[in-house]
Amino acid sequence: MQSNPVQQLSLYAAAAATCADRYAKAFYPMIKDADEKMVCCVHGAEDMDHYITAAEVLRGLGVDLGGLVERPISERGLPGADVLETTVSWAERAAFSALFEGALLAQLRELARSDCAPIARMAGAAIVREERHVAHGLGLLRTACGAADSKAQAQDAVRRIWPVALAVLGAGEPRQAFAGATRDALGALGLSVSE
Question: Can you count the helices (H) and strands (E) in the chain?
Fold first, then answer.
C-alpha cells in the first residue's frame, strides 16, 4: 500500500465508488430474492456514503475527486479494476464482496491508524460496515461451495477477482496480512488463490 495516507484514501474512495457502482449496475439486476435485493441496496448505499465521506475529507486536505463517479471503472485509477466492469455471475458477486471489499477493509484498518485525524476518523467509522460486506460475501461463497458446479464457479470467480483485490492494496504489510487471512478463510471453503 502507498505510504501517503492521502493517496491511500484517494484510492479507497475510488474503490468505494466502484463498489457502489457494481451493486447498482451489476449485482442488483441479477438478484431474484427480495431480501438479497435489500442487502444489495444497503451495501451499495453504504459504499457510496463511504466515497462521499472520503471525498469530503480529501477536499479538506486539498484533493478534489470531482467527476470520479462519472468515469468508467477503468479510468478511476484502480489497478486492474477493468475486470470488475464485466462481473456478471452470482459467484463473482460473492467473490467481489469477500475479496475486493476485503481489501478495502484492510485499507480502512490501515487508514484508521493514520496520524491525520480526519482520515483516521473517517476510516474508523467505515470499518464496521465494511466488515459486514465482507462477511456477507464469505457467506455467499460458503453457500456456493455447497455444490460441485457452483463451487467450480466460485473458484473461477475467486481467481478472477483476487488479482484486483491485491492490486488495490499495493505492497507491504497490510497486503500480506490480508492475503494470509483471506487464504485461510478461502481454504476453509475448499477454495484457493495464487501466491
Answer: 8, 0
pLDDT (tens digit per residue) in 21-34? 999 999 999 999 99
Question: Residue 166: CA atoms inside 13 Å, Cβ hemisphere, count?
Answer: 16
d(CA 97, CA 188): 17
Look at the block and give the residue holding cell 427480495.
Answer: 34
Instruction: Quote the distance between the C-alpha of residue 69 and its chain's center.
Output: 16
- The residue assigned the cell 470520479 is 68
Amino acid at 193: V
The C-alpha cell 475448499 sits at 190
The answer to whether the CB of 100 falls within 8 A of the CB of 85 is: no
Q: Which residues contact 17 (CB under 8 A, 6 or more apart)?
A: 47, 48, 51, 68, 69, 76
The predicted-structure confidence for 168-177, as pLDDT tens digits, reads as follows 988 888 899 9
Least confident segment among 45-54, 61-70, 133-142, 171-180: 171-180
Q: How far is the first Cα of the chain from the last one, in angstroms, to the nearest whole number?
A: 17
Taking a C-beta distance cutoff of 8 angstroms, is the pair 104, 168 a contact?
Answer: yes
